Fold Integral membrane protein.
Amino acid sequence: MQKNMIITLLFSILIAFFAILNAAAIPVNLIFMKMDISAALVILLSASIGAVIVYSLDTVSKMKSRKRCKEFEKNNAMMNKEIKELQEKSTSQLLEIENLKMKIEKLKKGDQEDAIKKI
C-alpha cells in the first residue's frame, strides 16, 4: 500500500511540475463556449478528473470482488455442512454394517447348534 502511495505522490509531483512549465494561457473550446485558460489548470483538471474516474472504477471492482468473496464463503459453509452430514451418515451406516455382521455371526452359530442337535 505504501508503495502505491509513493508512486502516486511521485506521479502527482511530475504532473504538477509539467503543469508549472506550461503555465501559458491557451484557448479551450468547451462545446458551448470558448475561453482562454492556463494550460497548467487544464493539465491539473484533466489529471484530477482522470484520478476520480480511476478511483470510481476501482471502487466498483472492489465491491464486486467482495460480493463474489462473500458468495464463495457462503457456498463453502454450505459444502462444509453437507460434508459433515455425509460423514455422520457414513458413520451411522458403518455402525449398522457392524451390527448386521454380528447378527450374521449369531445366525451362523445358531445354525451350527441346530446341526449339532440333529446329530
The longest helix spans residues 39-118. DSSP finds two helices and two strands in the chain. Residues 2-118 form one domain.
